[in-house]
């Protein structure tokens, strides 16, 4: 049985969404985390090494960091075909775009959000203005990151765009607005919001 360590209205909400898409059995364990304003504290029950969410435990097997959790879950629950498995022609793209999410896209957004200039050439990520066209190029080829096929990558990208789309950090793009609508109108997303508080 999967236990999701979760704090409502954070990056762990998207894993309720993914678990609902997968129709996997899971329980939610609400934990405290540090907050931006200095309040809150790491919950000793949370197995993430820095007490961040999300993290999961699968009968004692701990997985943390969003791309690792997404991959672990879609490999473990393949029946709804939410993640290409090893040997599938889409596997390489799937792994790449999952890794790109935390390796490049999130740092790009967070750099802009925090007004930190991206030290191009010495950093492993790029500015939002360079990252976004790469994602848009994918989305212009199909309704989803992998083209015709919805995957856990869309759970990460769709929810991230939904969040940053409300801020000045993200340049306006009709393609992304349509994409966000496509992702958040999925029934599993509504079910996830209904379970948000545990
Ligand atoms: N790289 C992590 C980021 C996780 C993360 O920063 N989560 C936030 C909630 S949205 C958190 O736990 N913040 C509390 C803290 O950083 O101590 C992932 O993508 O899973």
Describe the structure.
There is one protein chain. The chain is α+β, with helices and mostly antiparallel strands. Helices cover 45% and strands 9% of the residues. It contains seven helices and four strands; from the N terminus they run βαβββαααααα. A four-stranded mixed β-sheet has the order 2-1-3-4, covered by helices on one side. Strand 1 (2-6), helix 1 and strand 2 (26-30) form a beta-alpha-beta unit. Helix 1 (13-22) runs antiparallel to helix 5, helix 1 crosses helix 7 and helix 3 (91-113) runs parallel beside helix 5 (152-164). The two termini are 16 Å apart. The model has no long low-confidence stretch (mean pLDDT 95). Bound molecules: glutathione. Glutathione (GSH) binds next to loops.
What can be said about this structure in brief?
By secondary structure, the protein is an alpha+beta fold. It is built from seven helices and four strands, in the order βαβββαααααα.
Show the helix and strand layout.
Blueprint: E1 2-6, H1 13-22, E2 26-30, E3 55-58, E4 61-64, H2 66-76, H3 91-113, H4 128-139, H5 152-164, H6 174-184, H7 187-195
Parallel strand pairs: 1-2
Antiparallel strand pairs: 1-3, 3-4
Bound molecules: glutathione.
Shape: globular
Report the biggest beta sheet as strand number plus sense, adding barrel if it closes.
4 strands, mixed
Q: What's the number of extended β-strand segments?
A: 4
Strand content: 5-15%
SSE arrangement, N to C: EHEEEHHHHHH
Strand order of the largest sheet: 2-1-3-4
Q: Which residues sit in consecutive blocks of at least 5 with pLDDT less than 50?
A: none
Q: Rg, please?
A: 17 Å
Bound molecules: glutathione
* Mean pLDDT rating: 95
Number of helices: 7
- Taking the alpha carbons of the first and last residues, their distance comes to 16 Å
SS class? alpha+beta
As a percent range, the share of helical residues equals 40-55%
């Amino acid at each position: 049985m999967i236990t999701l360590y979760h704090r409502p209205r954070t990056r762990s909400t998207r894993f309720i969404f993914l678990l609902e898409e997968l129709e996997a059995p899971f329980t939610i364990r609400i934990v405290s985390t540090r907050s931006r304003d200095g309040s809150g504290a790491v919950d000793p029950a949370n197995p993430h090494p820095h007490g961040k969410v999300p993290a999961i435990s699968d009968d004692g097997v701990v997985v943390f960091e969003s791309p690792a959790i997404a991959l672990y879950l879609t490999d473990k629950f393949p029946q709804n075909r939410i993640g290409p498995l090893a040997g599938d022609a889409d596997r390489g793209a799937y792994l790449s775009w999952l890794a790109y999410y935390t390796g490049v896209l999130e740092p790009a957004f967070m750099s802009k959000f925090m007004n930190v200039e991206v030290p191009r050439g010495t950093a492993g990520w790029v500015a939002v203005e360079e990252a976004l066209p790469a994602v848009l190029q994918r989305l212009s080829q199909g309704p989803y990151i992998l083209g015709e096929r919805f995957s856990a990558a869309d759970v990460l990208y769709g929810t991230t765009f939904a969040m940053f789309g409300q801020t000045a950090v993200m340049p306006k793009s009709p393609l992304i607005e349509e994409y966000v609508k496509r992702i958040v109108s999925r029934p599993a997303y509504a079910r996830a919001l209904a379970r948000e508080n545990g």
